[in-house]
Design brief:
Oligomer: single chain
Number of strands: 14
Strand content: 35-45%
Structural class: mainly beta
Helix content: 10-25%
Mean pLDDT: 83
Shape: globular
Number of helices: 3
Low-confidence stretches: 1-20
Strand order of the largest sheet: 4-3-2-1-5
Radius of gyration: 22 Å
Order of helices and strands: HEEEEEHHEEEEEEEEE
Amino acid sequence: MRKLPAAILLCFVFTFSIFLYGDTLYTVDNKVYTGKLVAFKFDTVYFNVYKFGKISETKRFPLFKIHKIVFNPKKDMIESSFEIEQKYKKLRRGKRVKTIILKAGTKWMDTNIKLREKQSILFSTTGSIVIKGEQKVYQYGELNVSFHMQKQLPTQPTGAIIAKIGKEGTPFYIGANLAPFKINKAGKLFIGINDFNFDDNSGNFTVKIYY
């Protein structure tokens, strides 16, 4: 029986090991990708997709589009907003809910919701807007964050959903976050778009507030 050259055998073992130890990403629309999780920031997963035993491309997946990621050897799973949505249903029970259409050109909008100190609130957001000409973003804003002093939150993504308590309150990031926020002072809730130029924005988000 003819033996394979060492270099070819080594290549085969390496290729097989990639498939063997690759992570598996499942989307909410039942697509499956094998590869490697390389980064996670601003509610976006960066995933190296394998094809024929090597990296084919790096894909970006907004967290709300991911059902789960299984690591191989199997370790902990990353919870997606799909799974978190189910978890936080219990926390929403018994709370009042208000649905607001947040237009892309809105710096701050008074929700007319009065909150108590230490009250917990939750958000559920959908939709997309256009910023900077034709750049489409979702609730978490731009993927490549640009710093600008005139934004309400200069270090956070442009186009993201943000909030504050009271007209003079400190802004905080909402994005696509489904987890509860505990209010540290009483006052009216304001929501807005994190941006410095609202003239070229279009579209809107639908924001559900549980309080």
